[in-house]
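Z., the sequence and structure:
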Amino acid sequence: MSEHKNPQNVEAEKAVLGGILLDNESILDLPPELKPESFYLPSHGQIFEAMLALRDKGAPIDIVTIASHRPEISAAAVASLSDWAMPRSIAYHAGLILEAYRQRRALNLVRDSLRELQESPDRYDEIFTKLVLSFSEVDRAQSCPISQVMVEALKRIDKSENDAQLIPTGFTALDEKIGGIELGELLVVGGRPSMGKTSFAVDIGMNAAEKGFNVLIVSIETRRDKLGIRMLSRETKINGRKLRTGNVMADERERLIDASASISGLPIRVQDREPGWQNVKREIQRCKRTGLDLVILDYLTLLNIPTIGNERRDIAVGRIANECKRLALSLNVAFVLLSQLSRKTEDRADPEPTISDLRESGEIEQAADMIIFPFLPVVYDPEFEPRDKAFLKLAKGRDLPKGKIPVRFNAEITSFSDWREF
């Protein structure tokens, strides 16, 4: 890359844009941190923005569609990019663009900090801290292998062929009732805080992965190291509180290492702390190319959802629920979508959730093939016995009878299992 006052790699930008024109699918090979603002030339950023928008709409990406989306973009400028098309090496060239972008950003950060320091030398500590934090930012949009999650979880502790179209949940009574989650289906899991939504979803994901299904967990609320600790607690039966504090004995540490090796072998990927729906969708599409059967999104109402015009929030949330269903069908994957419930359940004599308690429930209910509410009676009735008895309330299903399925909830390891009378 030539040296300039502002680092740049215009040739790499042309190679990426030209590669997408030649092979639209190559856009999925790009790192999700590549944004329109990553490009040095504003015109290239505008073209890339148009390409992303077209991809999200499922439209072809070519000279005509780009010009229709952004009339101010010259068709001749877009056409000239075809001479630079190298789709097979698009990820490499994207890396060069990001390298130049990070260098420009670093220079700008330093320049801004120097200017601030010259104007306010007494704010040295504040300015220096802000600069360090800016440099320590890491992109969190791309998923990572479960083996990496296991490494991070351990570090945190130290400080069936016939049923190929049905993914088992791993809960015997539930699977007997619903048969499993079908590819192309959308299962909505709803609940108030402390009802075990995330625990139930993680249990489903790990149970499915243990059967050989490829799983992507999109965890917006929970950091992946904490998610890893939850998995290790479930696998080893060691109290999750002990793991979070790192207060483990030597024999427990050996169990943790064995469990992390076992979990690392599961076909699970984790994407955490990425609230943008478009990036989440791109990651799902990317994972499908190498094998994906089940997507777990935790959870819907935490997503940053772009609104259209004066669109109300409830309409926007419902639109994304419908997009999840369409994505499940188009990619032939099962989708588990977690959603928060309204607080109305706390104001009723009977706190058991109903479909109407789903926030923005109209569109969510319509999009869902199944709706299940994990419910822990002991949360509302401290005298309830047995204290570990919980229920999975099937509120909607494929021509299935509604009802409650008893399960056991182990609060120490935050995990559900089959209910058995002793």
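Residues 136-141 have pLDDT under 50 and may be disordered. The CA atoms of residues 280 and 403 lie 33 Å apart.

Let me know what you think.
H.
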